[in-house]
C-alpha cells in the first residue's frame, strides 16, 4: 500500500496538518475510507453519465428528504448551474446561448451583506447581480422594490455570520414566491447540522440549496450538491455536462458522483452527537494545555468560521511574553515539520479546530504550538 505522503513527497510538496478549517486552498476535508473505496470501484467501469446522475440524484434526494438532487463539480459550479436553471429553465435551445442574446430575464437579487467572493459564478452564468439593502440593514421593501420582470432569482447566502443584517430567509422566500421568483440558497459550508440538507428546501421552502461536497460532507473536494425543487434541479441537469451547453466545462466524473453519493450516505448515518462530544473533548484538552504556556491564552468557542455549531479554540498570543505575535507563531507552525495550518484571525489571535484532524493529530497540534512558542521565546524562530 502506498504511503499517503509519497505522491506529494516525490513532487517536493509538503503535506500538512489542517487545524484551520475545510477551506479549498488546504484541500477541503479528508474523505472517509468508505468514500475512497466507492470512488476506486467507480473508476473501474464505464457508465452512462446522465443515467448515473439521475440515479444518484434520486438516491440523494431520498436520503435528504428533497424532491430532487444533482451532483456538481464543486459548489461554485452549483451556483453557475442554479443561475442558468432559473434563467433558461433548461430549455434545450437556450442552454448553449448567452442569456442576454435571447432577451431572457437575468437579474439575480443579492443582499448587500452577502457580497461573498464567489458571486462571479453568477456572472459567469450570464446573471446580472442586483444589490439590495446595505451592510447595516435590508428590509422587505428593499426586496419588493427590486423585483421586476427582469428578475430571474434571489440568491441568499446562509449562515449566522451573513444573516444578521440581511432580510430573514423565510421572509425572503415568502416575498420572492409571492412574485413568482425562485430562491437559491448558498449553503456551501452550512454543515453541521445534518438537518440543513433539507431545512432550507423542504422546511423553509427555498427552491434550490447548494452545498460543497468537500467540506462537512467529506466527499470529493471537486464535488458539490444541489437539492430542491424537481423542476429547477432538472433544469440544472439539462444545463450540466454531458450536455453541450454553456456549463459543459463544469464536468463532474463518475468517480465524484459515486463518491459524493457515498459521502452523503455516510454523513446522514453518522452519530453526530458523538462527533460533537469528541470535538468538545479535544477543545477542552487544548484549552487546558495551552493556558499553561507562558503568554498564551486559549478560549473554547461553540461556533465555527461559517457560523455553524462546531467547536473550536481561539488562541491569543502575548507577543511580549512569547517573543512574537500570532502571525509569527503561525509562520513558525507553517515553516516547520510537521507543518500545521491554523486559521488566522488578528495579529494577536488565531483559531484551531478539531473537526478537520485525523486520529492522533490533536496532540501533535498542541505539541507543535508549544514547540513554536519555545523557539520564539528563545529567539530561534524561522525555518
Can you summarize the main beta sheet?
7 strands, mixed
Q: Which structural class do the helices and strands define? A: alpha/beta
* CA(first)-CA(last) distance: 32 Å
Helix content: 25-40%
Radius of gyration: 22 Å
Strand content: 15-25%
Given the C-alpha coordinates, what overall shape results? Answer: globular
Poorly predicted regions? none
Question: How are strands sequenced across the largest beta sheet?
Answer: 2-8-7-6-5-3-4
Mean pLDDT across all residues, rounded?
A: 95
Order of helices and strands: HEHHEHEHEHEHHEHEEHHHEEHHEEEH
Task: Count up the helices.
Answer: 15
Number of strands: 13
Condensed summary:
By secondary structure, the chain is of the alpha/beta class. The chain contains 15 helices and 13 strands.
What layout of secondary structure does this protein have?
Blueprint: H1 6-9, E1 16-18, H2 33-42, H3 49-64, E2 68-72, H4 75-88, E3 107-111, H5 120-124, E4 128-132, H6 140-146, E5 151-157, H7 160-163, H8 169-178, E6 183-186, H9 196-203, E7 208-212, E8 224-228, H10 230-239, H11 254-268, H12 272-290, E9 296-301, E10 312-317, H13 319-322, H14 326-335, E11 339-341, E12 343-346, E13 349-352, H15 361-377
Parallel strand pairs: 1-11, 3-4, 3-5, 5-6, 6-7
Antiparallel strand pairs: 2-8, 7-8, 9-10, 10-13, 12-13
Helix pairs in contact: 2-11, 3-11, 4-10, 12-15, 14-15
Amino acid at each position: 500500500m502506498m504511503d499517503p505522503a509519497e505522491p506529494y513527497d516525490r513532487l517536493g510538496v509538503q503535506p500538512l496538518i489542517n487545524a484551520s478549517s475545510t477551506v479549498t486552498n488546504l484541500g477541503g476535508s479528508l474523505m472517509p475510507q468508505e468514500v475512497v473505496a466507492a470512488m476506486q470501484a467507480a473508476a473501474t467501469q464505464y457508465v452512462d453519465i446522465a443515467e448515473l446522475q439521475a440515479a444518484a440524484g434520486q438516491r440523494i434526494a431520498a436520503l435528504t428528504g428533497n424532491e430532487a438532487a444533482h451532483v456538481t463539480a464543486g459548489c461554485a459550479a452549483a451556483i453557475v448551474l442554479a443561475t442558468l436553471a432559473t434563467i433558461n429553465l433548461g430549455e434545450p435551445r437556450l442552454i448553449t446561448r448567452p442569456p442576454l442574446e435571447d432577451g431572457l430575464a437575468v437579474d439575480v437579487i443579492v443582499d448587500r451583506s452577502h457580497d461573498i467572493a464567489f458571486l462571479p459564478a453568477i456572472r459567469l452564468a450570464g446573471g446580472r447581480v442586483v444589490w439590495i439593502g446595505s451592510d447595516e440593514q435590508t428590509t422587505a421593501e428593499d426586496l419588493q422594490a427590486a423585483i421586476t420582470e427582469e428578475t430571474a432569482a434571489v440568491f441568499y447566502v446562509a449562515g449566522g455570520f451573513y444573516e444578521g443584517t440581511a432580510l430573514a430567509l423565510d421572509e425572503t422566500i415568502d416575498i420572492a414566491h409571492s412574485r413568482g421568483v425562485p430562491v437559491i440558497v448558498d449553503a456551501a459550508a452550512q454543515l453541521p447540522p445534518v438537518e440543513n440538507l433539507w431545512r432550507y428546501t423542504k422546511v423553509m421552502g427555498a427552491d434550490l440549496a447548494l452545498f460543497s461536497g468537500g467540506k462537512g460532507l467529506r466527499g470529493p473536494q471537486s464535488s458539490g450538491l444541489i437539492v430542491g425543487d424537481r423542476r429547477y434541479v432538472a433544469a440544472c441537469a439539462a444545463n450540466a455536462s454531458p450536455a453541450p451547453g454553456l456549463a459543459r466545462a463544469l464536468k463532474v466524473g463518475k468517480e465524484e458522483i459515486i463518491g459524493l453519493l457515498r459521502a452523503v450516505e455516510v454523513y446522514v448515518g453518522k452519530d453526530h452527537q458523538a462527533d460533537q462530544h469528541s470535538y468538545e473533548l479535544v477543545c477542552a484538552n487544548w484549552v487546558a494545555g495551552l493556558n499553561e504556556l507562558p503568554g498564551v491564552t486559549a478560549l473554547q468557542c461553540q461556533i465555527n468560521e461559517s457560523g455553524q455549531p462546531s467547536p473550536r479554540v481561539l488562541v491569543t498570543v502575548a507577543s511580549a511574553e512569547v517573543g512574537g505575535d500570532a502571525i509569527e507563531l503561525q509562520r513558525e507552525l507553517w515553516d516547520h515539520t510537521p507543518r500545521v495550518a491554523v486559521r488566522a484571525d488578528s495579529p494577536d489571535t488565531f483559531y484551531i479546530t478539531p473537526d478537520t484532524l485525523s486520529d492522533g493529530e490533536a496532540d501533535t497540534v498542541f505539541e507543535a504550538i508549544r514547540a513554536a512558542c519555545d523557539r520564539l521565546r528563545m529567539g530561534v524562530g524561522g525555518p
